[in-house]
Design goal:
- By secondary structure, the protein is mainly α.
- The protein folds into two domains: 51 residues, Arc Repressor Mutant, subunit A (Orthogonal Bundle); 145 residues.
- 72% of the residues lie in helices and 0% in strands.
- It is globular.
- The relative contact order is 0.10.
């Protein structure tokens, strides 16, 4: 007696579902960014974000969380340049810095990365400034600033492994933390009319002069 083969089980492919979820998440982030900019953070309701994104309110909460979570996501995605938060150690420019053969190359890569990130982050920073009385936003920005400080210590340690520093490592990390702040980009590019290229050269030259021993 010949046994008939059983039905072939098809492997479930979740690619389409993941892509649809990513599109929904991107639409929600775009809607939040637009409305926070137009109306201000405090005056923007989650319902308005859902309506602008064309999704149900429950979908907004499921995909992005509460309104402070949305603000965090806007910061994280402005830094990563994608629709996802990417840990520092997994970002392409961080890996390129770590792989660079000398301190000068590391500085050049980082200056280029900061110049690309700054205009995206400036928009989000403007949103946060609109809500000075929102304690969750103030706490969020403090957390981001402290995380940046920790990352600067890692960057400086990487520089020091390639070339001696001119000054103490903690002081060097503080200098990078201050000079890579979005506020400086806004002052020089936004208010003084510098081009991004000029700003990038400024960062590169400043870090060379202040951080690296002769």
């Amino acid at each position: 007696m010949t046994l008939m083969p059983g039905p072939v089980k098809r492997r479930y492919d979740a690619t389409g579902r993941r892509q649809a979820a990513a599109r929904t998440r991107a639409a929600i982030l775009d809607a939040a960014r637009e409305l926070f900019t137009e109306r201000g953070y405090a005056a923007t309701s989650m319902t308005a974000i859902a309506d602008r994104a064309g999704v149900a309110l429950d979908t907004v909460y499921a995909a992005a969380g509460r309104k402070p979570d949305l603000a965090r996501l806007l910061i994280e995605t402005a830094i990563s340049g994608t629709d996802q938060a990417i840990p520092a150690e997994q970002r392409d420019y961080v890996r390129a810095i770590q792989a660079a053969p000398d301190a000068g190359a590391k500085i050049a890569i980082y200056a280029a990365a900061i110049t690309a990130i700054a205009p995206r982050l400036a928009l989000v920073l403007a949103i946060i400034r609109q809500a000075p009385d929102e304690p969750e936003l103030a706490q969020l920005w403090h957390q981001i600033a402290e995380r940046r400080a920790a990352n600067m210590r890692l960057f400086v340690a990487d520089l020091a492994s390639a070339r001696p520093l001119r000054l103490d490592a903690d002081e060097a990390a503080d200098i990078v933390w201050a000079t890579n702040a979005t506020e400086l980009y806004e002052l020089l590019v936004g208010q003084r009319g510098w081009t991004p290229r000029r700003y990038q050269r400024f960062l590169t030259d400043t870090w060379h002069r202040l951080l690296l021993a002769d």
